[in-house]
From TrEMBL:
Domain Enoyl reductase (ER) per the UniProt entry, residue ranges: 23-321
Compositional bias ranges of the Polar residues kind: 440-456
Protein name: Enoyl reductase (ER) domain-containing protein
SUPFAM superfamilies documented for this protein: GroES-like, NAD(P)-binding Rossmann-fold domains
Example of a GO MF term: oxidoreductase activity, acting on the CH-OH group of donors, NAD or NADP as acceptor
Cofactor field: Zn(2+)
Source organism superkingdom: Eukaryota
Spans annotated as Disordered: 440-465
Organism: Protea cynaroides
One protein family per Pfam: ADH_zinc_N
């Protein structure tokens, strides 16, 4: 693949892109140029979310660059390097190719090819996540401080907007030894501005009394506000010859009250990021003074929610995407292809077929599995049930058997008893007969042939003899 500059775009890359002014980001496959003589390729580890990313993805400046892969606060490690390169490098990168002004894809992606001139070296003590925002937010406030002489110790600097740019602005200004006043629309940020970032005072810009009390007190102001706001009240805060430097980029034009400028020969200037030499200088200065951004690290999947939160000002103070750990290749899914793309359509129908097929297979597997489980369960239940039934049956059966046995046993016992009784009685009778015969012989007690009747009683009852 060759682009309009004749570069070979052979390195496969993967990121998240916005496709229209909804700004919604979704997975996107693309290519980056092959490494040229002065290029390095880096694996991206982190990328900060600058307010400009939100404005560009939602096309607030009317650039219409879709598809747009945002991200220019990029840190990572070099994978294809030049001989002189340090293995830990970063690059500020915008939506435009360095030098050529042509569109390029940003850092919400896995790799970056960049001219070595646009990479800077991080000092060892600067973390790559909290350090990433310095590559835009940091240099955007550092550069005008130096250029406009708003870095002199003891001078009073106002910082408008305590956001991504503003909060590192306070840290740099304090490191320069300046007196710093934050000028904010959010009273809730006062404590953090003073306690955490070291600001000397805090002005609520909507509180006219506070603003009035601070008139004519500042040597300079750096205005980072992202939305249109009254400029006149800020100019009034400047001392004579004071400078108001605008770095925030509101989407609509702001009115300039000329009269405020005339009185006290005040200046208004602007500034955009900074050169590479100055960026390296800023990074080294940040390393020396331990200046990093206050960040909330997020996953790639969270990026659309993060954008919504950024639009509402709901972030303290910079989102940083953990690219290396959370940007997952979706090469096998359909979501990185346009709706209507034939490949997407065929993948969709294939997925549907597979879904149905898998459902059937799973159903069958489950059926067999459940059957087995039920079998075991039922067996157990039946065992218990049958045990009960059999117990009852056996009880009845055994009762009958025992009854019979007992009956026979008792009959036998009684028979024996009766027999022995009868034998005894017979013996007695024989004895008695003998006695009787002998007495008849001697006294002729009864005549022959006369029948006598004798009744013998035993303890079992009467027995007729
Ligand atoms: N010049 C450059 O090279 C350059 C580089 C990067 C970014 N930018 C631009 O700088 C601006 C700020 O970027 P950022 O990343 O710092 O954004 P950010 O994190 O969203 O912070 C912007 C801050 O502006 C203040 N603000 C918001 N709405 C306001 C309003 N209606 N009136 C007054 N103040 C308001 C808020 O601070 P408070 O709550 O304290 O009021 C907010 O925290 C953006 O427009 C961005 O495009 C320019
Ligand atoms: Zn930026």
């Amino acid at each position: 693949m060759t682009n309009s500059q004749g570069e070979e775009h052979t390195q496969k890359a993967f990121g998240w892109a916005a496709r229209d002014s909804s700004g919604i980001l979704s997975p996107f496959n693309f290519t980056r140029r092959a490494n040229g003589d002065d290029d390095i390729t880096m694996k991206i580890l982190y990328c900060g979310i600058c307010h400009a990313d939100l404005q560009i993805t939602r096309d607030k400046f009317g650039l219409g660059l879709y598809p747009v892969v945002p991200g220019h606060e990029i840190t990572g490690v070099v994978t294809q390097e030049l001989e002189s390169c340090c293995p830990k490098m970063e690059s500020t990168f915008t939506m435009f190719d360095e030098g050529t002004g042509k569109k390029n894809y940003g850092g919400y992606s896995d790799i970056l090819v960049v001219n070595e001139h646009f990479a800077v070296r991080f000092p060892e003590n600067l973390p790559l996540d909290a350090g990433a925002p310095l590559l835009c937010a940091g240099i955007t406030v550092y550069s005008p401080m130096k250029y406009y002489g708003l870095n002199q110790p003891g001078k009073h600097l106002g910082l408008v907007g305590l956001g991504g740019l503003g909060h590192v602005g306070v840290k740099f200004a304090k490191a320069f030894g300046m007196k710093v006043t934050v000028i904010s629309t959010s009273p809730s940020k006062k404590e953090e501005a003073i306690e955490r970032f070291g600001a000397d005072s805090f002005l609520v810009s909507k509180d006219l009394d506070q603003m009035k009390a601070a008139v004519n007190t500042m040597d300079g102001i750096i205005d980072t506000a992202s939305a249109p706001h009254p400029i006149g009240a800020l100019i009034d805060l400047l001392k004579p010859n004071g400078k108001l430097v605008v770095v925030g980029a509101p989407e609509k034009t702001v009115q300039l009250p000329i009269f405020s400028l005339l009185m006290g020969r005040k200046l208004i200037g602007g500034s955009a990021i900074g050169g590479m030499k100055e960026t390296q200088e800023m990074i080294d200065f940040a390393g020396k003074h331990n200046i990093v951004s206050d960040i909330e690290v997020i996953s790639m999947e969270y990026v659309n929610t993060a954008m919504d939160r950024l639009a509402k000002g709901d972030i303290r103070y910079r989102f940083v995407i953990d690219i290396a750990n959370t940007l997952k290749s979706l090469a096998l899914t359909t979501s990185n292809l346009e709706v209507g793309h034939p490949l997407r359509e065929s993948q969709v129908s294939l997925r549907e077929d597979m879904r149905v097929e898998l459902k059937e297979e799973l159903k069958e597997e489950l059926r067999v599995e459940m059957k087995e489980e039920m079998k075991v369960e039922m067996k157990e239940e039946m065992k218990v049930e049958m045990k009960e039934e059999m117990k009852e049956e056996l009880r009845v059966e055994m009762k009958e058997e025992m009854k019979e046995e007992l009956r026979v046993e008792m009959k036998e016992e009684m028979k024996h008893e009766l027999e022995s009784q009868m034998a005894e009685m017979r013996a007695q009778f024989a004895q008695w007969s003998q006695l009787r015969a002998s007495s008849q012989n001697s006294r002729s007690f009864r005549s022959r042939g006369q029948q006598g009747q004798l009744t013998v009683r035993s303890f079992h009852g009467a027995t007729d003899l």
